[in-house]
């Protein structure tokens, strides 16, 4: 495998989940694989889980890690070909990506959607710029439209927690005061297409995700009806896709509560705003899987790094 940019780079989700679970059993079993190799993490946006779990996974594989908060510490990047760079941007992606490639064996990038312009976000300029100009493999640590490491961790968590042949899994929108990207929801939807499950999406009118991604998946605007007999409920806020990047409303009735959850297990990628997105009682109760999801971030990225290292050795 050359890059890990989206769920499309997974050739067999069950095999990857199985391999990740084996790594979880023996995290340092491949300590020699990454010896002498360097992973460079470039953050254009904040992180807790992605940053620490990726470092931990790389260390489990014997890699050295360099981290740069590119968004606040790097030069502002230009992406346009042929641009006369006489304004604020000091460095072109062409040089930046090639230069970073001189210092590491794998580069991982986090660059969120700006949520101002749909076409700009969907162009994935940072991730695709590195893919085009870097000479080393590129890993997506959450881009404008996808968070494939989170979705892989969620698949691991589902495999560990599910005991039914075809569980009912609901992706439910929740209120949030800020406009958030669609990346987590998009990748969760893509991952669910690879699962044998009854999958339903629920959100208020106006919060439809990119129809190209959700085509054929049942959508239920009545949250209560969608949650009936659910085994797993994945809660996430996202801003409007149609009225791009807007917060259309913050209806508190959509917050997840113990009553609504019923007997289902609760999932969320974190960070989460307590008593806005989900009630304290859910997060503090025995049905919440959020800490296991965060733990599985390590083994998700570890299987990705392992496959890239095996391909490059
Ligand atoms: N879920 C997730 O990606 O967490 P961070 O933003 O803290 O990395």
Automatic annotation (TrEMBL):
Residues passing through the membrane, by range: none
Catalytic activity, reaction form: N(2)-succinyl-L-ornithine + carbamoyl phosphate = N(2)-succinyl-L-citrulline + phosphate + H(+)
EC numbers, comma separated: 2.1.3.11
Top-rank taxon: Bacteria
Gene3D superfamilies: Aspartate/ornithine carbamoyltransferase
Pfam families: OTCace, OTCace_N
GO BP annotations listed: citrulline biosynthetic process; L-arginine biosynthetic process via ornithine
Keywords: Amino-acid biosynthesis, Arginine biosynthesis, Transferase
Domain (Aspartate/ornithine carbamoyltransferase carbamoyl-P binding): residue spans on this chain: 2-160
Binding-site residues for carbamoyl phosphate, renumbered to this chain: 47-50, 75, 110, 147-150, 269-270, 297
Classification via SUPFAM superfamilies: Aspartate/ornithine carbamoyltransferase
All copies of domain Aspartate/ornithine carbamoyltransferase Asp/Orn-binding, residue ranges: 184-305
Positions of N(2)-succinyl-L-ornithine binding: 142, 176, 236, 273
Gene Ontology MF annotations: amino acid binding; ornithine carbamoyltransferase activity
Function: Catalyzes the transfer of the carbamoyl group from carbamoyl phosphate to the delta-amino group of N(2)-succinyl-L-ornithine to produce N(2)-succinyl-L-citrulline. Is essential for arginine biosynthesis.
Assembly notes: Homotrimer.
Protein name: N-succinylornithine carbamoyltransferase
Protein species of origin: Aggregatimonas sangjinii
